[in-house]
Amino acid sequence: MSDLVPGSNEGPAHRPWQGSPVPFEFVEAPLGGSGGSGTPPTSGPPASPQDADTMELAQVLAILRRRAWLVLLCVVAGAGLAWALAQRQSPVYTATAVIRVDDPTSQVSEQISWNWYGSRGGTDPVLSTLEVLKSRALLGELVDREGLRLAPVDGPLTRADLTVFQVGEFALPDTFTVRLLPDAFETASTRTGQSARARYGDAVTFGEVRFTVPDRGGEAGNGPAILAVQERDQAIGWVRGSLDFQIRPETNIVDIQFTTSDPALAQRVVNQAVQVFASLTLDQARRNNQRRRLFLEEQLAQADSTLRESQDRLSEFRSAEQVSSTQNRAAAQQSGLLSIEMRREELAADRSTYNALLTGIRSAEAGDMARRLEAIAASPEVAANPIVGSLYGQLMEYETERQQLTSGPWGLSERNPDVARLDQQIATTRGRLEGAIRSHLDAVDARLAALDDLRGRQASQVASLPRAEAEEARLIQQVQSVQRTTEQLRDEFYRAQIAEAVQEGPIEILDPAAGASASQGAELRVMLALGLLLGGMTGSGGAFLLEMLNTTMRRREDVESVLQVGMVGTIPKLPKQRLALKASKRPKDSAAPEGQAPGSELVTYHQGRSGQAESFRTLRTNLLFQGSVEPIHTLVVSSAVPGEGKTTTASNLAVAYAQQGLRVLLVDCDLRKPRMNELFRVPRKPGVTELVLGQVSLGHAVQAFEAVENLYLLPAGQLPPNPTELLGGNRMREVLATLREEFDIVILDTPPLSGGADGAILGAMVDGVILVVRAGQTDREQVRHAGRQLATVGANLLGAVMNDPDGEGKRYGSYAYQYEYYG
User: Fold this and answer.
1) Does 259 lie in the same domain as 334?
2) Residue 226 and residue 188: Cα distance in Å, rounded?
3) Is residue 786 part of a domain?
4) How many domains does the chain have?
5) Is residue 494 domain-shared with residue 600, that is, in the same domain?
6) What pLDDT sits at residue 113?
């Protein structure tokens, strides 16, 4: 390469652009470690996949903070949408009636009293009674009384505008068109085609449907109103969904509520509901008391007859044996035996009753069980057993509901799903009732066996008495036993008569509904809360979605995980962006005006004490520290895509090296879009092109930058048509070898790796490459592709420099930088 340098007989020390050799030494402590460790300094090791996949709470909060505008926008939009929807909805009104659920018979009969809150394993009578409130029988009667099957579906009329006199149980679904005239209204049936005209307040009748419209002449011409007769089950379902009850804690006071959009209808329906409820429960109580009285009356007559027969046998025996009373010596044995016999008679009667009930259940057919078991189930023995009584009541409810479904001309068939479901429930309840009765019978049999054994022992003692005394004692015992049973039945009979005469049901209406209260305010608060919640969730989800879709390099960890090398520097925002001469002011290939200061991007020259200049000195120190292991004399500065700031980085790094005292040559190898001549305000020609082609010598191509001592520039020169072939040839290798010998450090500014193969080719010729990445702009895949290019040609990638003019790194919280110049 001696032909490239004029005056080859002169040594390098005598050339005018060369200075005296400067020792290669460090004057700044490297970052993150002691000076002599020999380990290249980086910003940290490459992030492991586990670290990259793990998201901590601080990162989540940072994402939400960065996208706070989106979260806030979604929250405001959600609240606004919720408010708009709430305003469009009609207000909802709730009417409340207060009742008390009680059992008046518990005051006159301890045998059938209900233990409201102390029963163990049984059902709560209050809840059991209240479930009747939502039974199909009660709601069906309520729907029929209030005519709730007829409802407006379109037009100016509401439920409050109708006065429904009748909608029969068997009324077929139909649709009526009502036209409002100044002094009357016209109605036509869609199903039958029948029409009618009536004055306001007068009723019109269509089969089982009869209703009227109050005076609405002021709305004549507003369009017809459409009324529909719903299916009975559909109306019952609507009422069941709108009717509710709440038991006040530790009381038998219940609030019955009905909710709808019409306050007058809510008040009317809830009051009618409690009236129907009280009426049905009263009728049921009357029937139960009557059945119980009749059963006790029959049992009392049989007990009186048995008592008279026992007394007659005792009188006949005494007359025949001529005795008047038992002997004192047999009093004790007879008394004990009498007590045992009385208890055994009670158990035998109990067993007989339950046997009859079990036989009736087994032999009864569907629909016939209520008739066969009414008298037996009303007996005191059955009523005293809460489990059997509860199961029997439930069985009777299913039987009654089945009879309602299958009776009448419109009754359902045996194969109907509702009837089949009831049959299954009846069979299940019957089985449970049989099991409860069998369990009770087993217990009674065990007790009877024990009493028989005890009676046998007592009888053996009495047998030793004279025959007359024993027979008399037996007859007396029998009379007393029957007499006691008769007295118990007579007491129960009197109580049953009193209960039947009371004529009170378990439901007492305390406070009918006086009006309906609107609950729109509560719904508005709930909807606003839901709107805010959904808005926040949507905004947060959108923030995380945008974060996932953003594939740019934003953090140190992103660069290290993609390139698998450490960071060697981070460049913050420069004080001012590039100042380039406009092409319109001078010819494209002409020299820059002499004496003009370099561009403001050279912060190491213009603002040497600034934090930005300190960041380039830190980058220089890190590279010098890496060179302590393997010296770095030639260095390529490139980027993945244009606009990353590689030229600015290379230029400021060159100035920083020169300020360290090293002989530095900055070479503009971007033969496509060179910028170095504009940045330093030097002529672009002659330069690299002419030097490689041998048109000029090294001494004529290299220009000393007088503003910075030890800094030399080699511009791009004439732009060739084939820059890749020019830079990749052997002559370029020879030029680099010569420059390596003449300068301490040679920095090459190359084109972006995505713009051609120039940067990768030169990277394979030099000691090391640093890749400039712009935070928030460079895509991960672009950086990954650039790393593959360098690895393919065998380039030594020393590390990456993150250019962060927009503060993306600080926003993402992965690192913080604060360069201050001390000195």
Assistant:
1) no
2) 10
3) yes
4) 4
5) no
6) 40
Q: Write down which residue in 203, 232, 266 finishes a domain.
A: 266
Coil, strand or helix at 186: strand
User: In the listed set 266, 301, 334, which residue is the last one of a domain according to the structure?
Assistant: 266
Q: What sign does the dihedral 553-558-562-568 (CA atoms) show?
A: positive
Decide: 184 and 215 in contact? Cβ < 8 Å.
no
Cα 716 from Cα 801, distance rounded (Å): 24
Residues 6+ apart with CB under 8 A from 717: 671, 684, 685, 686, 687, 688, 689, 690, 691, 701
* Positive or negative torsion for Cα 431, 434, 440, 445: negative
Could you tell me which of 746, 657, 745 has the C-alpha nearest to residue 709?
657
Which token pair is 384?
């005293």
814: its two tokens: 């992965």
Inside any domain, residue 5: no
- Report if residue 48 sits inside a domain: no
How far apart CA 819 and CA 509 sit, in angstroms, is: 83
Q: Give CA angle at 265 (263, 267), nearest 5°.
A: 70
- pLDDT band for position 82 (50/70/90)? confident
Do 599 and 722 fall within a single domain?
A: yes
Q: Calculate the average pLDDT of the chain.
A: 75
Confidence (pLDDT) at 715: 92
**What global pTM score does this model have?**
0.43
Q: How far apart are CA 480 and CA 162, in angstroms?
A: 70
Question: Mean pLDDT over residues 696-723, rounded?
Answer: 88
Residues 304 and 208 in one domain: no
Q: 309 and 455: one domain?
A: yes
**Cα torsion 107, 111, 114, 119: sign:** positive
Q: Give yes or no for residue 455 having a pLDDT over 90.
A: no
Count of residues in the chain: 823
**Same domain, residue pair 210 and 306:** no
CA 250 – CA 98 distance, rounded (Å): 15
Q: How far apart are CA 742 and CA 745, in angstroms?
A: 9
| Boundaries of domain holding 224 | 93-266
Q: Is the residue at 51 inside a domain? A: no
We report the CATH number of the domain holding residue 702 as: 3.40.50.300
- Kindly report the backbone phi and psi dihedral angles of residue 224, in degrees, each rounded to the nearest multiple of 5, phi listed first: -75, 155
Is 214 in the same domain as 132?
Answer: yes
Give the pLDDT confidence score for residue 627 in this predicted structure.
Answer: 66
Written as one letter, the residue type at 655 is V
Residue 377 has pLDDT above 80, yes or no: no
Number of DSSP helices (H) and strands (E) in the chain, helices first:
26, 21
DSSP string, 366-408: TTTHHHHHHHHHTSHHHHT-HHHHHHHHHHHHHHHHHHHHHSS
**Same domain flag for 136 and 219:** yes
- Write the DSSP assignment of 48-98 as a string of letters: PHHHHH---HHHHHHHHHHTHHHHHHHHHHHHHHHHHHHHHSPP-EEEEEE
